[in-house]
Each structure stands twice: as C-alpha cells, then as structure tokens.
Amino acid sequence: MGDPTLVEHVQSERVLLVADACKSGGLISTIGKGKNRGRFALAAAAPDEDALSSPDFRNGIFTYYFLKGLRGAAASNTNKTVITVKSLFDYVFSQTRQAAVRLGAVQTPQLYGPPDLAATTPVYLTEEFKADLNVQVKLFYEDDVSRLREITDESMLKSGQRFGVAFRPDADCYLHIFCWDTSGQVRRLFPNPALTEGSGFVRAGETVWLPSRGGKHWYVLDSKPGRETIYLVASRHRNQTLEGLYGALEALSPQQRLG
Fold first, then answer.
1. Model-level pTM greater than 0.70?
2. Which of 99, 125, 151 is the last residue in one of the domains?
3. 139 with 115, same domain?
4. CA-to-CA separations, 126 to 39, 58, 84, in angstroms, rounded
5. Residue 22 located in a structural domain
C-alpha cells in the first residue's frame, strides 16, 4: 500500500518523487490521487518486482538510465531542449525493460500522476547548441626523403617510419584520445601530461599535433604486424568518467583488453 501522506506537506506546486527500490511501485502508487495535480512519481519496479542492479552499470539499472535521461537522452523528438515527465519516463521505461531482459529478468518502471499533464510538465532543461561538435582529424607520416604526407587508405608505411596525428575542433571542447595496440596495450595519446601540459581542453579552431602539442616529436612504427586502433572522444564539458577511463583500462590485463 502507498502512503497518501508521503508528500502531502511539501509546499510546492510540482513534485517528482523517484524511488529505486524493490517493489517500489507499491510504495508510491497513491501519489497521483490527491488534489494537487502537479505531483508525479517514478518507481523503479512494479509492486511485485525486484529492482535490479549490475556491476556493468555501477548502479541500479533504473537509476543509471534515469541519470542518463536527464543528461539529454530523454529529450523528446519534438523539443530537444525540454525533458518532460513523460519523455523521461518513456526513456527510462524502455531502457530498463530491455536491460532487465538481457539479465534474464523482468523489471517494469511505473509512472504515477495525472497522465494528461505528464507530457507537458518539464523536469529538466537541456543545453541547446546551434550545431554539432565536429573534430577534424588527419594522420601524417614522413616519407623516405623527409616530406610530410597525409596518410590515406592507399598509404603503405614501414617499421621505423615516423608519423603523427593532427586534429582541430570547431568548438571549444575536451578531447580524450586512446590507442589500442596489437599486444592489447592501451596508451593515452591525449592529454599526455609528459607532452601536452596535462590538459585535454582545446579551443575552437586550434590545431593540435600529436605526440607533442608543439609539433616537435613523432610516433615511430614498431616491427609488430597487426592492427592499432585510435579512439577519439570529444565532449563540450569536462567529463570525470572519461578522465578515469584510462586508469580503468590500465588495470586490465592484455588478455582482458583484447577480449
């Protein structure tokens, strides 16, 4: 049974109660039945269901997608800057259900409150940008007579040959670049405190050359055949998760990285 007095004394025209707990649907099922029509509740699971968690999410599944939704994933197709109660619930509902199925279980988030207002009641305003964030990336190598050439699909490089990476974003951003080599080793190319002043911030229109921001160094191809993959991730704001990614990758064994 839900407690009808749970938010009765909250002095606000709008209330959103969020509960990520097993059988949480039974706890808050009466919140939308009061006189105040601006009150909503999101429950992680139906009254007879468990609320799942997983090490892969580092949180409850419901909470993981709730937070991701607030960061912008739950914005509606018609209004990309406003996350409403309904758009947030619709996103969390579908994602949580799918994640539960992958774990071999059932979890059904619940929405309580006046349905007619859920689609128009805002929860969060996302940032609006005039254009997408784009980063131009080019790879160069030094040929046999020390000329700088761009690497293309037709380029053939040899062991010992020198190469570099140049990139330029069209807006201020933070960049993280990782290289995954053939042996399973992960290297952080940017930011690299030893060569690039330890900062991942790059201004719009600024061209950065790697391995050194000043353009005085080169990478050198080793003698091991195979594929090396470079990952570039750009974000408009500093992202602590990305900053901690390198440490997590370093902790893995080469076999784990390749697997």
1. no
2. 125
3. no
4. 22, 24, 11
5. yes
